[in-house]
Amino acid sequence: SDVTFVVGREQQKVFAHRCVLACRCQAFQGMLSQGLVGSEDPSNGIPSQGPFVLGNVQPEVFLAVIEFLYTNSVTLNIHIALEVLTSSVEYGLQDLCKLCTKFIKDTLSVEQVCEALQAAVTYGLADLQQHCLAFIEGCTVAVMRTQGFHELSDVVLARVLCSDRLAVDELDLVQAVREWAHVSSAVLERPVSEVAALPVRELRLPLLAPSELATLENHNRRDLLIPVSWSIAAAWRSHALR
User: Which PROSITE patterns match (predicted)?
Assistant: First the structure.
């Protein structure tokens, strides 16, 4: 090998060949070219081997990327697939991205679907996004109980709530959004009503029975999750018109 990487908190050394990395990936080509500037040892004329320090990448994830660059295939598992997908996007490796997407779709689970959906929206992977939404529609209640659901961004949660096929009662969905909003409020240190402004617009409050709507109003006085002036009032108007 003629280049060394020091990867992750473990500072694991990974050895590779400049010619392989540079010809297979433009991102590595740029990285290695910068590494050569001013790094040549005048005593022997041999380019420095680095090392290049990549502290924010898990060694197993980086090794998967290296494996792909050398073999055009990759060995994945459910613990690293999403991170390898992230690396494939960062390094501009479209074929690796496709392999990761296929693996994630084939192994999707209740515990991981929200994280996969978040990645799909972030990286503009429409096919994976639709697959994740269809999965959520089939087991909505179970998904709402996961940590991944509470870690969704407001934009992605709003996309989930846009679906007309969620297998959950509307009141339970409102409660799930309330729990999500309190978690996000604590993490972002912003008011509940502020962090939930976008997802709340997708709630279908007129579907609630009058007794459920009255219960919702009582809960709403504590955290002001839902704007009274237009959302709750509109739901009552809908019942009145019926």
Answer: BTB (PS50097)
For residues 22 and 29, the answer to whether their CB atoms sit within 8 Å is yes
Q: Is the peptide bond before 51 cis (omega within 30 degrees of 0)?
A: yes
pLDDT in tens, 164-222: 999 999 999 999 999 999 999 999 999 999 999 999 999 999 999 999 999 999 889 88
Q: How far is Cα 22 from Cα 49, in angstroms, rounded to an integer?
A: 14
Range(s) of the domain holding residue 209: 142-231
Q: What is the DSSP letter of 206?
A: G
Q: Residue 40 domain-assigned?
A: no
Residue 155 lies in a domain: yes
Q: Is residue 170 domain-resident?
A: yes
Tell me 232's DSSP state: I
Q: How confident is the model at residue 89 (pLDDT cuts 50, 70, 90)?
A: very high
Domains contained in the chain, number: 1
For the sheet with 52-54, list strands across it. Answer: 12-16, 3-7, 52-54
pLDDT band at residue 49, thresholds of 50, 70 and 90? low
- Domain-located, residue 191: yes
H, E, C per residue of 2-64: CEEEEECCCCEEEEECHHHHHHHCHHHHHHHHHHHCCCCCCCCCCCCCCCEEECCCCHHHHHH
